[in-house]
Specification:
rod-shaped, 195 residues, mainly alpha, 78% helix
């Protein structure tokens, strides 16, 4: 049975002999009803406060759930970004290694080509040096031959001039000397041909 403060105020008791003092009972019931009414108001206020706090708790729980979901989503995204970055970095490294290998291979081929060109140029230089030495030898031989020819021609075209001496022999005797004798004479003068 639910007793309200109004029930306490309106409660009437039978009077009997030697019963309680009616005014004290009424005063007591009034005081109890007021206390009971205050307790009921406080209980109602506390129920409202509890409902409000439960709403806040539920709201905080919802925020916590949202934050947890957000954190989990952010963690997943961070992991995905990290994985993608690592995959991308790995592909970049592989691509760079492949390109570096190609560049190195091309450089090696170019080095071999240049080395072959250098070797070819050295062989050509040796050939040219040999050819130049051969030409120089030929020219030297030709020059010696020309000099020898000129010397022979000069010897053949020597004009003997003898100055007149006080020789007691007759001119006819002088002209009769054989050539070997004239060549041995100290008065022979060689006249070179003018070029």
């Amino acid at each position: 049975m639910n007793i309200t403060p109004l029930d306490l105020r309106q409660q009437h008791f039978r009077t009997v002999m030697r019963g309680f003092d009616k005014s004290e009972v009424v005063a007591f019931l009034t005081e109890v009803s007021e206390e009971y009414e205050g307790a009921l108001r406080e209980a109602d206020r506390l129920r409202q406060e509890v409902a409000r706090l439960e709403g806040q708790v539920n709201e905080h729980r919802e925020h916590e759930r949202n934050l947890r979901n957000t954190l989990l989503t952010a963690q997943r995204l961070a992991d995905e970004i990290k994985d993608n970055a690592q995959k991308h970095a790995g592909s970049i490294v592989k691509e760079a290694e492949g390109r570096a290998g190609l560049v190195l291979e091309k450089a090696q081929c170019r080095l071999e080509d240049v080395q072959r060109e250098i070797d070819g140029l050295r062989m050509k230089r040796r050939d040219v040096e040999t050819s130049v030495e051969s030409v120089m030898g030929t020219l030297r031989n030709a020059l010696e031959f020309v000099r020898e020819q000129d010397a022979r021609e000069r010897e053949e075209k020597i004009v003997l001039h003898r100055p007149r001496h006080s020789d007691t022999r007759e001119p006819a005797q002088l002209w009769g000397q054989d050539r070997t004798e004239r060549d041995a004479s100290p008065h022979v003068v060689a006249v070179e041909r003018r070029a």
